[in-house]
Amino acid sequence: MRNLLAGNPVIPVITLDLVEDAVPLAEALVAGGLKVLEVTLRTEAAVEGIKQIVKHVPEAIVGTGTVCSEQQMKLSEDLGCQFMISPGATDALLQAGQRSSIPFLPGIASVSELMRGMEYGHRDFKFFPAEAAGGAPVLKAMAGPFGDIRFCPTGGIGLSNVKDYLALPNVLCVGGSWIAQPKLIKQKRWADIEQLAREAVELAS
Question: Which pTM value belongs to this model?
Fold first, then answer.
């Protein structure tokens, strides 16, 4: 997971309501410089949307988000995804992640959850919900006892605070929905989304 995320400091978190939006949205994000895309499994359009992106936007690195079961892990593999991300991490999910053929980023919000994930061999985690769980100061504090751990914080991150996270040495990348905004997707404003992607890349550089 660390190798996949290295050099990709901003991961757009995508929620698809219409399959037809999948390809133009992915094309806009990639054109703006964001290649690693997390498509959440929250909607009925997600599965077919992922299939379309994998087929028609080969330069995109596509993964699933909101993965909450072993069945969804298997689905992620079958769809041809290159990674999967969960909001949390049960023992059953961590065990399934060990058997998976693609990288898995488990979600944690506390030190105890982090240590449980480490027992299963994980060194990279999603920190969620980032702002509600204490934000950048919590991750800065975790760097002391867990210097080799890296995080992808997600939840409540936007233009006003993204630099606070990316400045931390234990942050690999951030996940955010401010780029692929539902309103912009609904209005099919692909040029605006591409511009937001470009701004995110510039912020992270």
Answer: 0.96
